[in-house]
């Protein structure tokens, strides 16, 4: 049986929350470049260049690309022979998101859990 400490999960989730808001994937940056080459509208080119410049600024200055982060959704694959020690998996993930949002200066966009809203419709 393999063991993983809950704090390692928390740290990984925190890092991922922050990095997702500091660095766009290379394919997104390439898409901006392709769009800049084909966009005919001056306003459209200006917006694309601003998006590209913002991505570079976020990466180099370590500030969020966009503070409005929506909702964090974590997908986990945990083998049957893996045991989380030092706390629960769910709590470790939630703590990682909390720390990532706090330390990454991200704005929490939700007031309450979506599951609490299911009866509101």
Written overview of the protein:
The chain has 121 residues and is mainly alpha-helical. The protein has helices at residues 6-22, 26-38, 42-61, 89-103, and strands at residues 2-5, 82-85. Strands 1-2 form a two-stranded parallel ribbon. The longest helix is centred in the middle third of the chain and has 20 residues, at 42-61.
SSE layout:
Elements: E1 2-5, H1 6-22, H2 26-38, H3 42-61, E2 82-85, H4 89-103
Characteristics:
single chain, 121 residues, mainly alpha, 2 strands
Number of domains: 2
Count of DSSP helices?
4
Percentage of β-strand residues: 5-15%
The strand order across the widest sheet is 1-2
Q: What is the terminal-to-terminal distance?
A: 44 Å
Average pLDDT over all residues: 87
Series of H and E elements:
EHHHEH
- Main sheet characteristics: 2 strands, parallel
Low-confidence stretches: none
Which shape, going by the Cα principal axes?
elongated
Structural class: mainly alpha
Number of strands: 2
CA radius of gyration is: 19 Å
- Helix proportion: 40-55%
């Amino acid at each position: 049986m393999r063991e993983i400490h809950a704090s390692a999960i928390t740290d990984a989730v925190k890092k991922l929350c922050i990095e997702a808001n500091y660095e766009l994937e290379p394919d997104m940056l390439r898409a901006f470049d392709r769009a800049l080459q084909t966009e005919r509208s001056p306003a459209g080119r200006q917006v694309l260049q601003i998006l590209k410049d913002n991505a570079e600024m976020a990466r180099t200055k370590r500030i969020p690309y966009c503070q409005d982060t929506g909702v964090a959704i974590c997908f986990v694959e945990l083998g049957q022979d893996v045991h989380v020690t030092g706390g629960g998996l769910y709590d470790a993930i939630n703590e990682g998101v909390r720390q990532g949002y706090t330390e990454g200066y991200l704005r929490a966009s939700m007031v309450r859990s979506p599951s609490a809203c299911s009866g509101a419709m």
